[in-house]
Amino acid sequence: xxxxxxxxxxxxxxVISLLAVCISFLLLTAVWLxxxxxxxxxxxxxxxxxxxxxxRFEIQVSSNNKYAVIVEEKGQKVSxxxxxxxxxxxxxxxxxxxxxxxxxxxxxxxxxxPNGNTKYQTVVKLLENLKKLELREIGIEPSL
Amino acid sequence: MIFGAIKKQKIQSPLEGLAxxxxxxxxxxMMKLAAPLMLTSLVDAFAVIVIYLLVSTHQSGKELQIDRKxxxxxxxxxxxxxxxxxxxxxxxxxxxxxxxxxxxxLLEYLSKLHKEFEASSDERKGNILIQADKASDYSKVSPLLxxxxxxGFENIKFxxxxx
Lengths: 144, 163
Hints:
The structure holds two protein chains of two kinds. By secondary structure, chain A is α/β, with parallel strands linked by helices. Chain A has helices spanning 13-29, 91-103, 120-132, and strands at residues 35-41, 56-61, 66-73, 76-84, 109-114, 137-140. Chain A has three helices and six strands; from the N terminus they run αββββαβαβ. Chain A has a five-stranded mixed sheet with strand order 4-3-2-5-6, covered by helices on one side. Chain B has a five-stranded mixed sheet. The interface between A and B is large, with 45 and 55 residues.
């Protein structure tokens, strides 16, 4: 036989069609907004007067971008600093807390105490900044 | 003679055939209308896109339904979504599964839910996911924290948009 060819062409058109359908489906069902969470663990259970007060930082936040950073060692207030920070990134506050962490390396606990009029975004940003500073024990106080 | 003509007109592939002008002409070199498409590289590119989309879909984890009225705050350092009771805060009202509740109803509902989760060892046990608008006041969210603490939901998760 003259034309005994072993080479043949695979019909790629159905493959392309199938892949195009897959791409369309995946594009339509893809999640484009990456949603995550900032976690806070709340204490539960009974309070006891005999329990030793832990050392901690307390950050009071008010609505007009004012922050009060208080250092407490075994229930005693050691220092208090007022900071006005109007930046969205809260750079001044983050820098000050970073310096406190260097000064008091044994303190791992932070307590956020926002005013009722504070914007939720501000509280979340502060929470994020504290997490960036590798502070793991973060508490948040409900406003009164 | 007839077989010779057919032999000359023999087309190697359908695409190549479509790309030729006057395939029955006697010209030695047939004029090409267009170069044949490189389908192999197209298939490769499609395959890469499909694999990328499959992997990114798999990594995105759980989905969360967001209310159109809520603009979540942004945060770059966030954890991945974990199962929990999803509470939406809209204008001082709390919504769970489209059911609107006030504070006392929420307290009752969450207490009941926590007992159910404890009994069934549900993976949502102790987890509460809060969705609130970034422009809202903290006073709208804070009662929820108190209620969560009272009802045994100790892991508070604030939903945020990753940057």
